[in-house]
Design goal:
5-stranded mixed β-sheet, two-stranded parallel ribbon, globular
Length: 263
């Protein structure tokens, strides 16, 4: 979700200048389906081919709120905004091998998706439960994306970048931080720099074997194992990779955004 536009970092501009690459910056608000549609229409009008899409934006542990379209803020921004954006850009991936990398989080362990209560109308709002639902949705979206695109060479995966010092934590009040600390108990947090945090996304998008990462959850530049340990900071919970839930989420997401997308 974008509130302001920044110039690309100097190292990125410098690296592009040293090759034939160019850097293009455009603004989109993932909390507005109208903004996503305008953005994707403009991109498709100006470009005819993509090799990789990295769905990297998002919010975390926000106060209870709604997007421009009335969805709970975290599910609406982190999942539905990306669901619409990626699917409307998928035609640009046609014609050759391509990859889609969805940024998820170890926070998926806070909750499975709850498709009949996405707006917390049947249960009390909890910022970490909401975040967990949205991050699980990011993984399930990758599972179904990979199933649908595999035959055409379009592979998708989800990535946990690690714990990084960024502005993602801007909404974390004292109470939210206390709840997080209580949930993590005595677990030690290893902080990453921004380049370290980007490494798994780059690895999954350009380096890793497509068959190895397709439909999987990756962390620390490797495919993460399945885990059922509630307090684990490593691995992925089985519910986040369930193919039936992934298909149900896809169908529900199409209903919510008001568009259907071909297999």
């Amino acid at each position: 979700m974008s509130s302001r536009v920044r110039a690309p970092p100097k190292p990125v501009r410098a690296a592009a200048a040293s090759t034939s690459a160019t850097v293009e910056l455009r603004e989109v608000d993932l909390a507005s389906l109208a903004s996503v549609r305008a953005f994707t229409d403009a991109v498709r009008n100006d470009h005819d081919r993509f090799d990789v899409i990295m769905a990297n934006a998002g919010v975390m542990a926000t106060p209870e709120g709604r997007t421009a379209d009335g969805f709970e803020t975290q599910f609406g921004t982190n999942h539905l905004g990306h669901f619409l954006l990626v699917n409307r850009l998928r035609p640009l991936l046609a014609g050759g091998p391509a990859r889609i990398v969805n940024l998820s989080s170890a926070g998926h362990r806070f909750s499975d998706v709850v498709l009949d209560d996405i707006n917390f109308e049947q249960s009390p709002y909890d910022p970490w439960q909401a975040y967990g639902r949205s991050k699980t949705a990011n993984i399930l979206f990758a599972v179904e994306l990979d199933r649908r695109g595999r035959a055409a060479g379009q592979r998708a995966c989800a990535v946990h970048p690690g714990t990084i010092h960024t502005e993602l934590a801007r909404h974390m009040t004292h109470d939210v931080l206390t709840a997080l600390a209580d949930s993590l108990a005595d677990q030690q947090t290893t902080w990453k720099s921004i380049p370290q945090g980007a490494a798994t996304s780059v690895w999954a998008g350009f380096v890793a074997d497509a068959d190895a990462i397709g439909g999987r959850y990756c962390q620390d530049c490797s495919v993460a194992p399945m885990t059922d340990v509630p307090g684990s900071r490593s691995g992925v919970f089985a519910y986040a990779l369930d193919p039936e839930t992934a298909q149900a989420l896809w169908t529900r997401s199409e209903e919510l955004v008001g568009e259907t997308f071909p297999t």
